[in-house]
Specification:
Helix content: over 70%
Order of helices and strands: HHHHHHHHHEHHHHHHHHEHHHH
Strand order of the largest sheet: 1-2
Largest sheet: 2 strands, parallel
Oligomer: single chain
Length: about 575
């Protein structure tokens, strides 16, 4: 599960509401107060990083308008595929920003995983597989129809050649155990999905915004003691935090970015280089996740989370100006115009924030609910009968109802930003965009040896909190007279649910700058974070052993795709016959 949660563009599609909707009346009053109380200078000198961002994005927009050959799929098969993808969204339990990349992973696994099990499979060459992936993404609504240039298929096939070599190397290596080989092959395909998506979507705007955020924060963050991190290490950690907080990118995507940094020839390696890379795959897999999830990374993430709203709204502004590439820089240089555009974007997001959170909560809760049905009949009922226990009707209802109510409660208490938040956002945005906007600096203290005893104490306190919360939840299930096996199982199910709810709560802060925490937030963290930590570990295992997803991948999806291919081929044949009628 990745509630936290495609590369960048699908995340934007999930976060930006209908462009034609107008801001609510109440929030218009906030805007008027802001603009009336503070006069805005018309002109401003752009921060050099923002200037590079504006110029690079404008050049890419102009370049992308060259002639190209679009890829087209049949609309009828596309409707069927989109309906199936909605079902998969519930089953896979992924956040919107990972749905498209998850679809690429599914296609690769469906095509290549039978080889790991020793089944004979059709040998896919990179060109054929590249076209298969692209067609299925367009058909499923993950890429726009009649828009993606056919010329990009060459880049996808070149990337696939490398990953197919890696996959072949792992599948033929008998030194790995079955589970280890499966997990390693999964890692390869997940990294492959990152590169394929990047090639097909060409997210120049998002890459440049991430780069600008990284460089600006690098100038403003100081580390204490100063010799605890060298300049390269500091820049790398800030880049990871910018990717993670600004676009909610997951670990696999961040690892892919690190691999590109480590290997400058990653996109065009020589055959000898590919062989060298394939030998290092096990080390990447074992060490990469640990490197990007240290306590130090968490400290930088906290700073990035405090300012990522600025760059998220700047992304919206650039998206608004994409049809006027020649006016991007002049618009950003005009403080009054930029303030108006930032305000407009803020109002759109503010108006739809609660709806989008409820939408995310609905799919997360529905996925938990459906998985409960599967585990109830496959695991809980057999275990209850094995230990001579059983389910009565009330116990069964509680078994399904409590996780749903927990999710509902944790989402319903989420509050929108305060009225004065917009003023703070505009002020902070101007300070980042312009040279003369004033600069706020941040200090990050790297704990030394003298803090180790304190950290041990806090860790023990955190573990104690987790034990108390788990015990309380288990007691509720026990009093409800659930079988003892279900008490244990459902307690961990609650951990998954709380983890999902905490991530949703974090996403509700997308419009907040320098969040002010109150006492109720402190208490809620004490109750939820320890159990959510356990839930995050279980979520990783859920992705690994999601039986329903595996069933759909190979038993349902394979014949379904074959039917869609047949319908599309039949439709094209009929079009050809109709064109012959003169």
């Amino acid at each position: 599960m990745n509630i936290k949660g495609n590369i960048y563009i699908s995340n934007l599609e999930s976060k930006i509401s209908d462009k034609n909707s107008s801001p609510d009346t109440k929030h218009k009053e906030i805007v008027n107060e802001t603009t009336s109380e503070k006069s805005v200078d018309h002109g401003g000198t752009l921060n050099p990083n923002i200037q590079i961002l504006a110029d690079t994005y404008a050049q890419e927009l102009i370049r992308s308008k060259k002639d190209y050959t679009p890829i087209h799929v049949d609309e009828m098969t596309s409707r069927l595929a989109k309906f199936y993808e909605k079902i998969r969204k519930v089953i896979d339990w992924k956040d919107d920003n990972a749905i498209r990349r998850g679809s690429i992973e599914r296609i690769l696994k469906r095509v290549l995983f039978p080889k790991l099990a020793g089944f004979l499979i059709k040998n896919y060459d990179p060109e054929t597989l590249a076209e298969t992936i692209t067609i299925e993404l367009i058909r499923g609504g993950h890429l726009p129809n009649h828009t993606i240039p056919r010329e990009r298929l060459g880049g996808v096939s070149e990337a696939l050649y490398k990953y197919l070599y890696f996959f072949e190397h792992v599948s033929n290596d008998r030194s790995f155990k079955v589970k280890e080989k499966t997990n390693l092959a999964t890692f390869i395909l997940e990294i492959a999905a990152c590169e394929i998506e990047e090639i097909l979507t060409n997210p120049v705007k998002e890459q440049e915004i991430t780069k600008a955020m990284t460089n600006i924060l690098n100038d403003r963050i100081s580390v204490i003691p100063s010799d605890s991190l060298n300049s390269d290490e500091k820049l790398k950690i800030i880049r990871i935090s910018a990717q993670r907080t600004l676009y909610d990118l997951d670990d696999n995507f961040i690892i892919y970015q690190l691999l590109k940094e480590e290997y400058p020839d990653w996109h065009n390696p020589s055959p000898d280089r590919i062989g060298e890379m394939s030998n290092k795959i096990p080390d990447w897999w074992k060490n990469a996740y640990k490197k990007i999830n240290t306590r130090i990374n968490g400290k930088f993430d906290s700073v990035s989370e405090g300012v990522d709203t600025v760059f998220m709204l700047l992304d919206d502004v650039l998206e608004e100006l994409k049809d006027k590439p020649n006016k991007i820089r002049s618009t950003l240089e005009n403080k009054e115009k930029l303030t108006d555009l930032i305000t407009k974007s803020y109002n759109k997001r503010y108006k739809t924030l609660k709806i989008r959170l409820l939408h995310l909560a609905f799919f997360s809760t529905l996925s938990v609910f459906l998985s409960n049905w599967v585990t109830f009949y496959i695991i809980e009922v057999p275990l209850a009968h094995l230990f001579y226990e059983g389910f009565n009707l009330s116990a069964a209802i509680i078994d399904f109802l409590i996780p749903t109510l927990v999710m509902f409660f944790l989402v319903i208490i989420i509050k929108p930003p305060k009225k004065e938040n917009l003023k703070k956002i505009i002020s902070t945005t101007l300070s980042f965009v312009y040279k003369d906007g004033g600069q706020e600096h941040y200090q990050i203290r790297i704990a030394g040896k003298r803090f180790r005893l304190f950290n041990v104490f806090m860790t023990l306190l955190f573990i104690l909190s987790a034990w108390l919360v788990f015990t309380s939840i288990a007691f509720v299930f026990y009093v409800a007279k659930l079988p003892i096996t279900s008490v244990i199982f459902d307690t961990f199910t609650i951990a998954l649910t709380v983890f999902a709810a905490v991530v949703i709560r974090n996403q509700s802060k997308e419009l907040s700058v320098d969040e002010d925490r109150n006492f109720s937030d402190f208490v809620l963290d004490i109750l939820t974070l320890p159990i959510a930590k356990v839930g995050s570990v279980l979520a990783k295992k859920w992705r690994e052993y999601n039986i329903v997803a595996i069933f759909f991948n190979f038993v349902i999806e394979t014949p379904f795709v074959a039917v869609l291919d047949f319908i599309q081929g039949w439709s094209e044949y009929l079009k050809e016959r109709r064109s012959e009628m003169h």
